[in-house]
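Section 3.1: Structural characterization of target chains.
Under the original work plan, the team committed to producing a structural model for every single-chain target entering the pipeline before any wet-lab resources were allocated. The record below documents one such target. The sequence was received from the expression subgroup and is listed exactly as submitted; it comprises 291 residues.
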Amino acid sequence: MKAPVFNYHAPQTLAQALELLSTQDNARVLAGGQSLLAMLNMRFAFPDALVDINPLTELAYIRPQEDGRIAIGAMTRQREVEFSELVAARLPLWKEAILNVGHRQTRNRGTVGGSLCQLDPSAEIPTVCMAMDAVLTVSSVRGERAIPMAQFPAAYMTPSMQADELLTQVQVQPWPTGHGWAFLEFSRRHGDFAIVSCAVLLVLDKAGLVARASITLGGVGAFPLRMTEAENTLLGTPAGPQDIARAAELCGQVEASSDSYVQGWYRQRLAKEYTARALRLALSRTGQGHE
């Protein structure tokens, strides 16, 4: 099939893009296009205007901030995340997750902001943003506002943004030196969307007990889910086999969605197994000397 008829706009600056979004009815933003172009061609999307922000190189960057956070521009290609030394050193969970995003060809074009705004529940970038409590900056002609990742999903594949707003930046606070991390996912083939994914972060105190934990499941619900009860059950424990089994059991009780390919009970079993695997891997990495 072919895409429906629409008016095409290619603003050269962020200000021009925001002005277009404020004046064009039923507009869609084109970033990497790895999802949107397929949706257009299959007539799943019917925009009256397409705003192509590929010329906005001002939104493509990965850089440290004075407060210690890492800022990632919305137009940063996923390939740039994959090969960034800063990401590898400070955000190892991102490094591991990005290798599960499609294939080299899709990562060449796909963007960080595009994945977040598409908000597919199986997508890796929204999952790691949820795991790391990222803060997203959205802009419009009215100004900027910050949205914590926990508040970004409004519904299935629907971000909590206004029609005239554009995602411009993601800010991520690195976890401290010596933390453990793991990102694992189950899919039919490498590069396919995850049926279930699990992102884990752990910090141990000087006594070897869990002082901080983050467990996030992707693919099981309408958007990535932080498993706070499972996180809390690990706190103050050595994350031994019984502790991990207890946390994994809680994740296996998640209210999982069913579809024409995978039933909810199967996602629950995967969630339990992959949580246990990710926790063991993250635990084995605690104390490593990444920055």
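The chain has three domains: 7-52, 57-172, 180-285.
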